[in-house]
Amino acid sequence: MIMPIFAYGQPVLRKETNDITKDHPNLAKIIDDMWETMYNAKGVGLAAPQVGLGIRLFLVDTVQMQEEGEEEKGIKKVFINATILEEDGKEWAYEEGCLSIPEIRADVLRQPKIKIEYFDENFKLHTEEYEGVNARVIQHEYDHVDGVLFTEHLKPLKKRMLKRRLAKIRSGNIHPEYRMKFHTLKKK
Fold it and tell me: How many CB atoms lie under 10 A from the CB of residue 146?
């Protein structure tokens, strides 16, 4: 089932999420629905808060970003209760976008190497190292489960330049090619 993606302005996107256990209700269905939602929106990663869930779960598929014949350099994985143990290397800029912040892309500085501990969808514990684009997509999604959006990594001038465009997203005054849930202000 394709779920609506929560847009910039939704409170769930700014909250730190909670760890889950292997008997979390409907976990397999949530994961399946998140994959379907991510692919429908043409994304390479999706975190649970982006579909309104305050749990430490995200998925990544960088296989689709690789050049033809280089697909094995990508990853397709589920990350549950992840913890980044180390980040290393000289920060590098790369243009990032986000399904919760459509139509906005900006260069974000991140370190090129990470070491991460996480459970997969079968609750098998892994400790692995990633670098380059794989590390970057993981870091982006990991930020989501900590309540951080990529726009928070931008320099103050760039943030000011994006203020109007972010306000349009918050108010629902955009028309992405996928289903979204926008923030609605409560009337007093």
Answer: 15
Question: Is there a domain that residue 96 lies in?
Answer: yes
CATH number of the domain that residue 48 is part of: 3.90.45.10
Task: Give the total number of structural domains in the chain.
Answer: 1
CA distances from 52 to 9, 14, 19, 77, 176 (A): 12, 11, 15, 20, 18
pTM score, whole prediction: 0.94
Q: Is the dihedral of CA 143, 148, 150, 152 positive or negative?
A: negative
Q: Kindly state the helix (H) or strand (E) to which residue 94 belongs, with its residue range.
A: strand 92-98
Distance of alpha carbon 28 from alpha carbon 22, whole angstroms: 10
Span 137-180, pLDDT tens digits: 999 999 999 999 999 999 999 999 999 999 999 999 999 999 99
User: Which residue matches tokens 């459509």?
Assistant: 102
Phi, psi for 70 (deg, rounded to 5): -115, 10
Q: So which residues are the catalytic ones?
A: 141
Tell me the two tokens of residue 67: 């050049």
State the DSSP H helix or E strand holding residue 114, giving kind and residue range, or none if neither: strand 113-119
